[in-house]
Amino acid sequence: MMLHIEALLDKNEVARMRQLLAEASWSDGRATVGPQGARVKQNRQLPVDSPLALQLGEFILQKLYQHPQFLAAALPHRTVPPLFNSYAGGEHYGLHVDGAIRRLPGSGLSLRTDLSSTLFLSEPDEYDGGELQVMDTYGAHEVKLPAGDLILYPSTSLHQVLPVTRGERICSFFWTQSLVKNDIQRSMLFELDGHIQALRAQIGDTAEVLGLTGHYHNLLRQWSEL
Q1: Which whole-number Å values give the CA distances from 91 to 107, 110, 163, 165, in the listed order?
Q2: CB 49: neighbour CB atoms within 10 A?
Q3: Are the C-beta atoms of 116 and 172 separated by less than 8 Å?
Q4: For residues 24-33, b (16+ Cβ closer than 10 Å) or e, as one string?
Q5: How far apart are the first and last CA of the chain?
Q6: What is the pTM assigned to this prediction?
Q7: How many Å is the Cα radius of gyration of the chain?
Q8: Choosing a second label site near 100 at 20 to 30 A (CA), which of 65, 81, 206, 212?
Q9: How many whole angstroms separate alpha carbon 145 and alpha carbon 37?
Q10: What is the tens place of the pLDDT at every residue in 144-192?
Q11: In whole angstroms, what is the distance from residue 210 CA to residue 201 CA?
């Protein structure tokens, strides 16, 4: 399931973040990938332990874990602190699959990457190219969203960032381990939850709505890995 989450950050929050990032010191993006990724990756990133990256990442996580659509779709267990990248002057990231396991900095814990997120911090008219291209059984999907919007997609997907030929593309990106490992099961729960919320808004907490709510939570108990 791919999901477009609109306005995770508002325009004022994006502007403040961009102002801080404009003064940042960027490093070679290949420092955070393995040998396969390094062969196809050409971009810049904030160092993982940069105070600015940690500050902005914490703010994004706070917004993320207050967002009902993200919570319903991802059913998050753990999320890697957000990273930040920049593409300009033809920089790109060729076809790759994200690594299955990520270390959580400073915790000694590891995380299984079930879901990948890209939070766009540049407006689409600020740059040419730079589309996030995600492959699935239905073909290639190109994503280029307004600043403040986020795309959520399975980390098992083959994907790439196309070359930026004008301007600069700035994004935040991160991975989430879900309580429900299976993408099909997560999608079913998300759809069921959406129908329950719509019915509740229309007819209130009838016996049928409460029954469906119980069914949702019993499925979550059955499928979750806690």
Answers
A1: 32, 30, 5, 8
A2: 10
A3: no
A4: bebeebbebb
A5: 22
A6: 0.95
A7: 18
A8: 65
A9: 24
A10: 999 999 999 999 999 999 999 999 999 999 999 999 999 999 999 999 9
A11: 13
pLDDT digits (tens, 9 = 90+) for 83-142: 999 999 999 999 999 999 999 887 888 999 999 999 999 999 999 999 999 999 889 999
**Phi-psi sector, 125: left (phi>0), alpha (psi -120 to 50), beta:** alpha
CA–CA dist 186, 155 (Å, integer): 13
Two tokens at 99? Answer: 């690594």
Integer Cα distance of 224 and 63 in angstroms? 24
Strands 3-5, 150-154: pairing is antiparallel
Find the DSSP H helices in the chain. 11-22, 35-40, 51-64, 68-74, 183-203, 207-223
Which tokens sit at 15? 């502007």
